[in-house]
Amino acid sequence: MAVLEIDTVHKNFGGFVAINDVSFALEEGETHAIIGPNGAGKTTFFNLITGHLQPDHGSVTFDGRAITGMAPHRIVKLGLARSFQRINIYPRMSVFENVQVALIARDAMHFKLFTLGAALNRDETSELLALVGLGDEANEVAGELAYGKQKQLELAIALAANPKVLLLDEPTAGMSPQETAESIRLIEQITVARGLTLLFTEHDMGVVFGIADRISVLHHGVIIASGKPDEVRNDEEVRRVYLGGSSHAAA
Amino acid sequence: MVMPRGTAIVVVLVLAGLLLVPVLGSNYLVDLSTEILIYMLFALSLNVLIGYSGNVSFGHAAYFAIGGYTCAILLTTYEWPLLLAFPAAVLLSGLAAAFVGYFCVKLTDIYFAMLTLAFAMFVWAVAFKWRDMTGGDDGFVGVTVPALIDGRVPYFYFTLVVVSISIALLWVICHSAFGRTLVAVRENRTRAGFVGVNTRAMRHVAFVVAGTFAGIAGALLAMYNHGMYVESAFWTESAQVLIMTLLGGMYSFFGPAMGAALLYLLNVFTIQYTEYWPTVQGVILLIILLFVPEGVVGLGQKIRQQLAKAD
Asked: Could you tell me the pTM of the whole model?
């Protein structure tokens, strides 16, 4: 059953067609990768799903409910959380607080003016930080963490919303090959352990074959192929796009 | 959450010192302390907006003035008892902030700031022109203050109690689940939205809290002066409380209170020698912005860190 359905969604930026009538279905429980060269429209696609951008036309349905045009904070509450390609944390707050605030929001405690905040969700915050490997950095200032650790923090913040479906926008962007491999392994573990449906983007094809159940290839705002990793790998057009125009060759 | 020990000790010492002020026998000192307490509350109320939510207001005097005028008019013109007039004045400040805030939080940054200024100028214009009600530019003079607190020392203690309770409430609000989330909204509005926080509503609530507590400060000032004057609604008053907040340090809860005391004392000290207080104020603002952007509290922290390193 499709938990997330995108129907002929279109987005135009002043004449430039970023997403061109894309239809797409995410099946419950699957790990689905969206790949495509830089500039293919992956981030725009995520922004359209999560309410950051409004589509020109088309609809987004999550869990049987139309979410097109809904504000991001309401979409999160329905169980659809995301991380960002560019680091998007609270740089001057501690690592601990970064995650704790997400839990406060999940529990709808953020309008409690007379409930002291520091003691809220302490254990769960620590558990989440340990889960993503930031157990020792809880008290550090988030903006001063190493890049890779900030990426892990992104993941912890997204997980704190306790989502049913998690969208990760290039979770390994800017990481070394070794960090990438570790990060992908971690994401895979968490996805399985929490029974998450995962949709993630990646510009490097090689990264995704190990963990994706299905892969969709986005190119110039159009999904040119979608299917099991082997099918996609052997697709004529995918080979042409990747081998022809990009340095990231098919694995 | 408990207050850090050092801070708690300072708070207790300041409170104890203030309780003893009337014992010293100086009328001047009692007056000065009353005035400073009122401005401390005013500056702390503004910092909910500036320091905690990250929205700079150029029109915070509006709520200060609404609180002051409402309290003065209800007590005097309508002869309401204090126990009704005071809460009504605070309520009206909060409602005004809720109304203005509704429009302001649709905007951000400089547009937000300019809209707060525009509404504040409107409040000033009403106070100026509505002569029958407010006394216009002559001011609203001869405020009836209940006999129980009408006197230098009783009024000082009244102010001390009201300001202490207000600051305690503000402290709780700033350290609440709401306060923590508000800092996240300040730090990264986009991210906060994507963890499920309605950031506009958060900023709106912060606006109302700030306006409400400014109203308390304004009501206290009206009774202290036995009058309310249009200057309290003017943009220079908004600018002064903004400078107090920045001078003390907006990233610390108590910083603005310290800034209020410092600027007030500097003012009192300076006007003995020169009539160019606005110039002095300008120079102070320049120094803060150029050299100590995090205020006196931030400077203190930096010095302490340097000393710790040197050890």
From this structure: 0.92
